[in-house]
Amino acid sequence: MEEKNYRHYIQILKEELVPAMGCTEPIALAYCASKCRDVLDDDIVKAKVKVSGNIIKNVKSVVVPNTGGLKGIPSSIGAGVVAGITENVLEVIAHVTDQQKKEMQQWLNRTPIEIIPIESEYALDICVELIGQNHRAKVRIAGFHTNIVYIEKDQEVLFQMGVVASTDQTLTDRSLLNIRDIYEFAKNVKIEEVQDILQRQIDYNYAIACEGLKNDWGAHIGQILLKTYGDDVKVKAKAYAAAGSDARMSGCEMPVIINSGSGNQGMTASLPVIVYAKEYHKSQEELYRALIVSNLCTIHQKTGIGRLSAYCGAVSAGIGAGCGIAYLLGGDYEALCHTMVNGLAIVSGIICDGAKPSCAGKIAASVDAGILGYYMYKNGCEFKDGEGLVLKGVENTIRNIGQLSREGMKETDKEIIKLMCR
Questions:
Q1: How far is residue 73 from each of residues 16, 49, 141, 238, measured CA to CA in Å?
Q2: Where is the Serine dehydratase-like alpha subunit domain (predicted)?
Q3: How far apart are the C-alpha atoms of 289 and 276, rounded to whole Å?
Q4: Which tens digits make up the pLDDT trace of 118-166?
Q5: Is the whole-model pTM more than 0.85?
Q6: Domains delineated in the chain
């Protein structure tokens, strides 16, 4: 790889593999509210929250951690206002006392919150306005979960930047990603340059998966998989990824390392690879390199799709995990290409109907497709050019899926949101 691209790939991993506590859409709301509270610096008497449909969809049914089991947009706002530590960003409500949980409920009981759905060109769009006794403030996040693009106090604009411009300035260009360079980068990267972020992903995500398998979380998808199908490595790979989601979607307060703005995607991209590495007694370096493949393959797919969509992000991560497993077991560039295309051909129709316990089931199905895609390749089988959305060349198929989800599923997304909110 060119030195410039090598550096960009390292930076992409650093930008994407960051910790978050709780489902990232409620946490983005809490972060926005916490920042707005800081700007306001006044006793709050009312709140107005403008949100895009995908925020409504992804906040409606998921438990906001550290709130005592509360769900929904008002709870996310209340958590950020009462207990948010803004500088902690996606861990903004990671440190909440029992007293603050009581104060949240009191604040929600006395503070009117107006929720205004908006039509936005950005799937992720949040604007929190807090009205105090003497002042008012407004903060907007758009494009991705921590991207503050507007700050206002008492009708004076304190900060403003276009969403595209701020994204370009904040994030490294993802269009540089491709499967061939991902493979070469994983083979040749100096491990010491990425070891810390990858080890943190292993530690955090494996811990919450174990919690999901051990205790009473969600719909128990991880536990059911192991109970029903046994402990074959293919089953365990699905079970651990699903169990992490079981816990996280139901309010578990353990942090995870996300991928493409999503904890579910971060767990799905990493846990199956970790399970396979343990099963096959792979070295830590072999695991790190395989995780590079799985994470970057996930990010590559998500680049064409967007952070939020009607297309289930677990699919991208499950196929990414399949590619990571293929690499871990000695697969070359061709193995990655065929695993990617085969997996996408199987499950690219799964929709996203918000964050909630059933995400764990979709994760299990997506990981299964990624693994099957690899074993199809191992047995000399493949889905071929012209069959459905599959095109000759892995990058062409990835582009097809991106267009399907980004453009073709816009109306699907609107209908999903309408059905969820009726």
A1: 25, 9, 15, 31
A2: 89-417
A3: 13
A4: 999 999 999 999 999 999 999 999 999 999 999 999 999 999 999 999 9
A5: yes
A6: 23-168 (3.30.1330.90), 172-421 (1.10.4100.10)
